[in-house]
Write the structure tokens for this entry.
Amino acid sequence: MTSASSDSKKTDVGSYFISNYPPYSQWTTDQLPEVRSALESVSPLKTPLGLYLHIPFCRKRCKFCYFKVFTDVKAAEVQRYVDALCSEISLVSQLPVMGDRPFRFVYFGGGTPSFLSPKQLTKLADQLRKHITWDGAEEVTFECEPGTLSETKVKTLRNELGVTRLSLGVENFSDDLLELNGRAHLSKEVHKSWKWIEEADFPNVNIDLISGMVGESWDNWRENVVKTLELSPESVTIYQMELPFNTVFSKDILGNQTESKVADWETKRAWVDYAFEQFKDAGYSVSSAYTVVKDPQKVNFSYRDNLWKGADLLATGIASFGHANGVHYQNLADLTQYLTAIEEGQQLPLGRGFVPSDHQRLVREMILLLKRGYLDASYFREKFGVEIKDLFAEQWNDIVKNDNATIEGDSIRLTSKGLLSVDGLLSAFFEPQFQGVRYT
Ligand SMILES: C[S@@+](CC[C@H](N)C(=O)[O-])C[C@H]1O[C@@H](n2cnc3c(N)ncnc32)[C@H](O)[C@@H]1O
Ligand code: SF4
């Protein structure tokens, strides 16, 4: 069995990050008729609507990465994918689920969206604008790998794609560690691109760091924090290194029966804790188990918060995850099948789905919102007609007993210990049939 960022000390292969419920392994092709009917139905006007676009290419596969990515792809194949993505969006734009709703948030994720050239990005934006508009969106996020950026590309993102939140995968400032972990970029590329990013004046720039890259030490981690503070981004996201099955590191550990070289969970948590304290001293606030923000008034996480609260998210691109009218779905994860569905069939490239019960939607929302560090029981009473403190009395008792949360009236608040290990707390809320199953 796999474990969610558990309390067991070692970072073993098979750990995973909880981002949805019920577990992805339970989604099936049998449920696609329900997905289609959800997409063919009109959603309530008040349900926020988002768009996710997946760009699966990277310059190099990082040894810790578990995403579906392709490297060494020829320019013509990248263009073919981008064209298919535009055709898919044309199909999506005709779906009744869109209704008259504008997109409230848009997310270009990957892989590496910034792998695309300025010319490809301009073409993508032009083609997309024939079918949809995202001018009124409150947040347009674009994920970038530092070494893929150029001054022209950064300007294209801001001026032609209307990006409001640029997220930069810095991960670490040590060139030795970056190389050891198979990253394609070096720290000088971070500094070079930072100048262009500052000049383009994005409302929000986020830096991603990973606590527990192979080779990490206390001295180097402190240095990472200092260097991040020097750049002074609007937000910083710190992931604790996971080792799901399909990473290069995991395959090496399993294939050669070697020990994991990733620091244990306690150390990774201590590093995040240290970083959070330093950021707080510098005026940042903790906004979730993974994120600190410089100015909570200015930075709102539209994608994260809306998604966690069950907004509609129309997923486009290979293997993307979406949610429409209360139904989960994922696009085809095989590139040939994905392209064929769109190019030859003019069909949505749907792969599998899941129709959650009301209880499952409640669990999903509750565990995802708990990642912010607090819950308000009255919110769930109003939305689901459920007393979460009573329904999950046993789980909350355990969590409080172990010093992971305090409960006062309707307010459930994680302690800093609970917040740093939140992913390990969530599976207790899973229904029995999903307790022992593989997550992805
Ligand atoms: C899609 S990538 C961001 C954009 C770009 N591909 C890059 O890496 O610069 C999303 C983030 O996931 C995080 N990530 C990837 N694999 C991880 C792992 N095994 N454990 C923890 N975080 C991981 C990294 O921080 C990475 O920046
Ligand atoms: S971490 Fe980012 S750059 Fe590295 S392989 Fe994964 S998606 Fe690509």
